[in-house]
Specification:
InterPro entries: UstE-like. The structure is a single chain. About 40% of the residues are buried. The protein is built from 13 helices and no strands. By secondary structure, it is an all-alpha fold. It has 2 domains: about 220 residues, no CATH class; about 100 residues, no CATH class.
Length: about 325
Amino acid sequence: MFCETEVLDGYFMGLCALVTVAMQVSFFIIAAYYKFDKVTDFAGGTNFMLLALLTMVLGGTYYPRQVLLTVSVMVWGTRLSGYLLYRIIVTGKDERFDDKNRGFSLEFAAFWVFQAVWVMTVSSPVVLVNSQCQASANTPLGVTDWVGFGIFALGLVIETVSDQQKFNFRNNPANKGKWCAVGLWSVSRHPNYFGEIILWWGVYITCSAVFVGGMWASIVGPLFITLLLLFVSGVPLLEDSSDKKHGMKPEYREYKKRVSCLVPLPQSLYGSLPLSFKAIILFEWAMYSRELRKLDESPPSDEAKASGIGRGEAKGGADGEGLEAPLSEGGDAV
């Protein structure tokens, strides 16, 4: 079966690239001209929604799998875009940008280029299923589909609940100067990122039920978001930020030892696991404690002396042993 509507290519990838570039460039010009940073994340989330809806409408088939995937992306995008827009309106500023890198600067432009790549890459599995020119798109929903949707739903719930828990915590004046360790944050240091990662793997699993040939290459979508959050703009930046803020507090270091970096686990179970297992399976890597090591290698401050933290306290990972990362980043600081 062939698609009746083809724009640039049968899978609409070229069209989606043009739409994404046009949308991100437009938002960049507005944000740069007015030095306005409140629409950055909103522009990303709504771009996902637009691509999913556009490709389904242009494809014109509306098979159950396509509808469920599109609705999933719309729900995710509405929730995340709305939450991030509301959060930045309340906080008043995006801490990723300052006056120097707002406006028509290369650094600010690079952010929007990267956001366009993020949107296109992560959207690719859904775009392919919505617009593919093959009869397999209409195969009945099966076990693979429901496993994927189940993982997506679990990830969405975890991300939504953890975002709300942290937002409530940070907006309570009694918690000023503290790190969030309530609810899901008591069993994972980054539960929102865990939710974000697994929901996109769930989407990919559902899409894979009808993949043929080169469509399998769209695995770069969930891989991209996983690597981004683990190595670039997610966990590393927030671990560094939290370590700088709270690294001289013994109770904070104890929190890092007791609480899983990413995968939610009871503290009693996590604490009993060998460090090698944590590093290989649970992403507890030395790079996530590099700021603690810097603190320990510098001359002790009065705060450090008072807290009893001395030189060499945090060598290596959160458990104090030197392990490098195996095979060798949308959140706010703890």
